[in-house]
């Protein structure tokens, strides 16, 4: 389980903040972190990854600090952790040296399935190809926790669907997945739960099955969050 308690993260330079009173994400859940530009999605993922100082609060994974468990977590982001002068093949060897659980055969088969040029330098890849490579590396790490920031960025619609399906097919079902995205239509059938941020606060936290039972879809809930007046904080479902 990932647990956040009284988390307060600020960027003094922009007055932006993220505040989470309490959030628990049980093992095995696939969670979408949604919200408009600047709502704090990346800040939330970075806080979970232990990047940047927390002003207050505590974040743990299975009761232990995140920084003590990096070998069990894959952080997949556009910024990328790849080394641009390596080819995917050499990058795979590098990761195998670095992460004891890294599965090189699985990595090679994912690189192949995504049709990435295994012997071309990563710096020559398009944005979408770089992100695909990050997904290959993340899945091959056999991480228990996959934290993905906009994993479908830079991809055309077919590529996005393909990437999403491949990613889901590549999971064992045991992993806990947190992903940020703006592609709410595409992920509605993939996620178990949606957490919607607005101005650094969680304004809705819903299980997709419950939402559907109420005859709603993600766009409806996102719209309600957006239209809620800040003087009347909106929280869904209502307490
Ligand atoms: N390094 C930084 N220094 C100062 N302010 C920052 C920094 N990084 C982010 N912010 C601010 O924090 C707020 C939240 O940013 P964040 O990147 O978490 O949003 P986001 O929901 O991921 O947005 P997007 O959908 O555009 O990627 C924004 O107001 C942003 O300008």
**For the CA atoms, what is the radius of gyration?**
18 Å
- Give me the side-by-side strand order of the main sheet: 6-7-8-3-9-10
End-to-end distance: 23 Å
Number of DSSP helices?
Answer: 8
Order of helices and strands: EEEHEEEHHHEHEHEEHH
Q: Would you state the CATH class?
A: Alpha Beta
List the uncertain runs. Answer: none
On the 0 to 100 scale, the average pLDDT is 87
**Derived structural class:** alpha/beta
CATH level-3 fold name = Rossmann fold
Largest sheet: 6 strands, mixed
CATH H-level homologous superfamily name: P-loop containing nucleotide triphosphate hydrolases
Strand content: 25-35%
Give me the CATH architecture, please. 3-Layer(aba) Sandwich
Q: Which ligands are bound?
A: adenosine-5'-triphosphate
Quick overview of this protein structure:
It is built from eight helices and ten strands. By secondary structure, the protein is an alpha/beta fold.
Describe this structure in words.
With 239 residues, the chain is an alpha/beta fold. It has a single domain, classed as Rossmann fold (3-Layer(aba) Sandwich). Helix content is 32%, strand content 26%. The chain is built from eight helices and ten strands. The protein has helices at residues 41-48, 88-98, 104-113, 127-140, 157-169, 184-187, 208-213, 218-227; strands at residues 2-11, 16-25, 30-35, 56-61, 64-65, 73-76, 145-149, 176-180, 193-198, 201-207. A six-stranded mixed sheet has the order 6-7-8-3-9-10, with helices on both faces. Helix 2 (88-98) runs antiparallel to helix 3 and helix 3 (104-113) packs antiparallel against helix 4 (127-140). The radius of gyration is 18 Å and the shape is globular. The mean pLDDT is 87. The structure holds adenosine-5'-triphosphate.
